[in-house]
Specification:
Number of helices: 3
Structural class: alpha+beta
Radius of gyration: 14 Å
Strand order of the largest sheet: 1-2-7-5-6
Mean pLDDT: 96
Strand content: 25-35%
Low-confidence stretches: none
Shape: globular
Length: 152
């Protein structure tokens, strides 16, 4: 099954690439890898979740934001290759705008990891970091960077 077919089955529409919001490109191919710049949870031009988790943003809202970051990453991939060129998902770097005592960043990151697995099945198995940070651009609750392996 193609990635496009799987996305349709999951009722996921890939948007236009949000941003970039600085002096960088959203995606860059190097050999068989595509590096995706940190994706914010933008949908229809607005952030889905803002502020520190959990005081200003509930964990479930941060999880929904993490899922949107995955969708936005796929939009970024499409700027350099067709989605069906993806062989595997190599790595996610998940940054959660966290209150000082919040330690459930992996719980937020799991939402992104689970969506990746739903879309890609076994090739979606990836390495990951889930890190709490004091602030993110635009006061976003979550930002995720990605590395995808593509066909030569």
């Amino acid at each position: 099954m193609s990635i496009a077919d799987r996305l349709k089955e999951l009722n996921i529409t890939i948007p236009e690439v949000p941003g970039p919001f600085g002096a960088y490109v959203p995606a860059k191919r190097s050999g068989n890898l595509v590096y995706i710049a940190g994706q914010l949870p933008m949908k229809d031009g607005k952030l889905l979740a803002i502020g520190q988790v959990p005081s200003r943003c509930a964990v479930d809202d941060a999880q929904a934001a993490a899922r949107q970051c995955v969708i936005n990453a796929l939009a970024a991939v499409k700027t350099v290759v067709d989605l069906d060129q993806i062989v595997s998902v190599v790595r996610l770097g998940v940054f959660v705008n966290s209150d000082p005592t919040f330690t459930q960043q992996p719980q937020v990151a799991n939402a992104a990891s689970e969506l990746i697995r739903e879309i890609f099945s076994t090739p979606g198995q990836h390495t990951r970091a889930a890190v709490g940070v004091a602030a993110l651009p635009l006061d976003a609750a979550v930002e995720i960077e990605f590395i995808f392996e593509i066909k030569p």
